[in-house]
Known about the structure:
The protein is of the alpha/beta class. It has a single domain, classed as TIM Barrel (Alpha-Beta Barrel). The chain is about 45% helix and about 15% strand. It contains 13 helices and twelve strands. Strand 4 (about 80), helix 3 (about 90-100) and strand 5 form a beta-alpha-beta unit. Helix 1 packs parallel to helix 12 (about 315-340) and helix 3 (about 90-100) packs across helix 5 (about 130-145). The longest helix has 26 residues, at about 315-340. It starts with a strand and ends with a helix. The mean pLDDT is about 95.
Amino acid sequence: MQFGIFTVGDVTPDPTTGRTPTEHERIKAMTTIAKHAEDVGLDVFATGEHHNPPFVPSSPTTMLGYLAAQTEKIVLSTSTTLITTNDPVKIAEDYAMLQHLADGRVDLMMGRGNTAPVYPWFGQDIRQGIPLALEHYRLLRRLWDEDVVDWQGQFRTPLQGFTSTPRPLDGIPPFVWHGSIRSPEIAEIAAFHGDGFFANNIFWPKEHYIALINLYRERYEHYGHGRADQAIVGLGGQVFMRRNAKDAVDEFRPYFDNAPVYGHGPSLEDFTDQTPLTVGTPEQVIEKTLTFADFFGDYQRQLFLVDHAGLPLKTVLEQLDLLGGEVVPVLRKEFAARRPAGVPDNPPTHASMKADREPVDAARQ
């Protein structure tokens, strides 16, 4: 099972000091966090894509390309690639280039985003969000799967005899996840293509995500990709840990109360009770995370949000030390012990997809 972290890249004042990091400081901190995630044994670093303050990761491939040169093992991913407002031709090119630079350690997560003004900023209509996502993704798949593409659609100029360059590494496109917090249509397109489905369940109660994941699993089986319990599922979560649970709550409360996304809303206690947020000891994080499979079924990737709301870099690195040193080793062991036979323990990687393809290529020869 893959464990890792994702960042939303917010530039937020530290409510305990009043100091706001510069954009430069925040960007450099994110790269330090990613490299430390590899150092402590985590499997994945993922960055969001945002084009509005207070967020800075407007160019995920730039950051991930830099990290490809700074790391050796960790999978470099997005936690959102805006399939609606990005040109699918540019997505095809950018992520194939990143694949080559990272020697295949790349996947990406398609999403529509949660910032309405981004649509007109990039010349699109938010009322067409779902049709845009569907059409753009169908074109992206063709650009990766076919060397020469003739195409005409509703939302961009036609293509005639077009070849996206560079071609995917070894002829194998990056593995794609589809992230959604509300849209069954996104679960459907993930199932149709046999892609992964990521439920970023950091805001709403579990019942909402159970319905989406169950739909994805049922449709994955319907389209003949395998049994429903073999579908590739990823989950988000949030943690803040200290050795003593009260110390964790007391330290994290001002950051929670002033967070740019959910600050000044539900209480920390209510949010912890109703969502996957865990604020407490490493043992409490382990205990709560293990319950996720009870609700959603056995899954393949768990990403934690640990660096938001103005938390100092030193504190975030301490969180990674606890994740890598105490939490993830136990979770790996416990999830592996309970996983039924035939259910994948990891999502597809470049290496595994290449290995799966080699017998097919040999048979063709």
